[in-house]
TrEMBL record:
UniProt-recorded name of the protein: MFS transporter
Example of a GO MF term: transmembrane transporter activity
One Pfam family from the record: MFS_1
Organism: Kocuria sediminis
Primary localisation category: membrane
A GO CC annotation given for this chain: plasma membrane
Source species, domain of life: Bacteria
Amino acid sequence: MGPGPGLVAPGPAPDARGDRPVPTPPAVQQAPAPTSRRALVYLGVCVVLVGLNLRTVFSSFSAILPEITAAAGLPSWAVTVLTTAPVTLLGVFAPFAPRLARRYGAEAVLLGAMVLLAAGLAARGLPLPAGATVPLLLAGTLACGAAIAVGNVLLPSIVKRDFTHRLGLMSGLYTTAIAASAALGAGLTYPLFQATGSWRAGLAGWAAPAALVVLLLLPVAARHRSPVSPAPAAGAAGDSPWRSPVAWQITGFMVFQAMMSFSVFAWLAPILRDRGVDGATAGVIVAVSILLQMTGSLFAPALAVRLADQRVLNAVVALMAGGGFVLSIFGPLQLIWVWTGLLGLGQGALTAVALTMIALRTRSAAMAVRLSGMMQGVGYGLGSSGTFLVGQLLHATGGFAAAGVMFAVVGALAAVFGWQAGRDRAVQER
């Protein structure tokens, strides 16, 4: 049995270099947790439902990208920006989440993020004159990127704080929900477009589930008014993951994971259609691939928590994801379901274990939220270059072969950094 919610179990702490265990101080009291089992379950459900809304903005746009481009006359620069900007914004806004959480409380900030996400999703589909289409898409994308960045950072810290006794389960559930979010966007946006005859409705429809989560989070935010962690003690004020070799190894792992992950959301459907797959079938293939991501996301954190270290696990899932991506571009089209399935399983597990490293490599919720802000700020900021480079390589070569070579390299680098991040070491805390 682990400690109750709100207490972080003591574990081995590294020395100043982050590579040798030293004695651990007593358990650190964190912000008040839910006061009853029912409240804890309700919070867990909200965490999962938030995750279920964090990727539809990416996969919904790419699912009907040719239709949007044709109907709205999007210039090539706009397509590149709209597929790249959301991931870049995750890196830009992620560092602000820990500061906001310390000042206003994680639940209140999460509620605000979901309000902003619902508004951004709705804005992308507003029926405005043709000349306002690109500015509106950009504005909605900006709002969504900022909101998702905050949600990405806060969910792992809430799990670390309130679900230490069920760390593998909750990490698996919320990362699975994130993968499911992408699957829903990829699989349902094209049918919604066909049913309504409007690409605007296909995009704006995803504001409804986000608005529902806003309503569910209202009582949570009202009940949790204290921040995710109390003001740091004088001796802990200087603790920073930015000076930790362990934190930089995890961050490098996140960079290459993000390069592949968001390139899947943005470009897998166009890759399939470029290979001759029709739009409806491409949407189903991408959705099934992302559903398999859910399988990897569900089981990988539980396995990671049980292992003495995660070196082999991290390297294997990175190579699975990279290999699946490369084969989806170069492999025989008759086996496309196999290649995209391998990609889905590998990518789901890869994303999940990268996020699980936040909890496994920290001893407190305070450090977890700092590490989360660092690794996701840098990880998504640099990881967004993946979608951008694919777009540039497509424009320069007229095909996706060069992108296939790029992702062979990216997968190998993810395996190298994953091996380093998987060592049983923790970010230093005093």
